[in-house]
Amino acid sequence: MKLFVNNLVFAGLVLLAASVPTSHAQASPVMDERQVTLDQTLEWTMQNEQGAVYRILISKPEGEVPDSGGYPVIYVLDGNAYFASLHEAKRAQEQFRQAIIVGIAYPGEAPHNFLRRSYDLSPPVAEEQNTPPQGGQDELLDFIEHSLMPTVAERFPVDANHQSLYGHSFGGMFAIYALFTRPDLFNHIVAASPSLWWNNSYLLKHERDFRQQVEAGETSVIHHSLSLIVADNDSLQNQQDASQLYQRLEDLSAYGLRSSFHKVEGEDHMSVPFVLESRVLKQLLGTRGG
C-alpha cells in the first residue's frame, strides 16, 4: 500500500512538472519576420552619366505645401550612414515635417562605401596619388544638378529657393566645394568636420575665386548660409581649419552670406554626426536656414 501511494505521488509530480511551461514554452513564436522599414520613405535607383549607380532615399514631406509653393529640400551625402537618423528626427519634431530629405546613398549595406565616396567627394589628383581613385566631385555635382534635383522636383512641389546640402568629413569638404563653385545650386550648407586639409588644402584657391566673384557682384549670396561644425576631439588641424575658414568668410555677411562655427563637446570625428540631427534641421529649416 505504501509503495502504491508513493507511486501515485511520483506520477502526480511528473504530471505537475509537465504542466508548468518552460521559458522556451512561454516565448511566443516569431511570426512574419521582415526587415525594418522606415515609415514615410521612398527609395529608388539612379545612374549618373558615367553609369555609376546610386540609391536615392527620400523622406517624404508631411502636411500642406508651404506658402512658398514648395517644400524645402535637404540633400544628404553618405546617405547610407546619415539618412535614417535625420529622417526620424524630422518626423519627431512637427515643425520640420514639411521638409523633404534626400539621401544620396550607395548600393549595399555598408554605412560608408569607402571606394565610392573617395571618388565622388574628392578633386582630381596626380596619377601617382590616385589610389584609391579620386576626382569625381564635378561628376557628382552634375548628377545632383541635372538628374537628381529635376527628378525630385517632378515628384514633389519643391521650393527652389530653399535647397540645402549636408555632408560630413569628405562630404563636408564636398559641400564647401559646391558652395564655392556652384553657389546657385544650394542656398544653405552644413559641413561637419570637413576635411579642409585634403590635397594640400586645395579648396583655398576655390575660396579666393569665390570671394572675388562675391565682392565683384558676379555671384549673389543673399539668403545663403554656411554652418561649420567640428567635434572637440576632432584633429587639431580639422578644428583650426574650420575655425579659420569661418573667420575668413565672416565679413562676407556684408554681401548676404551668413556663416557660423560650432564645436561639439565630448564627441569625435566619427561620433559627431549622430548628435547633430536637430542642429542640422534647425540650421537648414529654421528661419530660412538661419
UniProtKB/TrEMBL annotation:
Gene3D superfamilies: alpha/beta hydrolase (3.40.50.1820)
InterPro entries xref list: AB_hydrolase_fold, Esterase-like, Siderophore_Hydrolase_D
Listed GO MF terms: hydrolase activity, acting on ester bonds
Keywords: Hydrolase, Signal
Position of the signal peptide: 1-25
A Pfam family reported for this protein in Swiss-Prot or TrEMBL: Esterase
Family classification: Belongs to the esterase D family.
Protein's UniProt name: Alpha/beta hydrolase
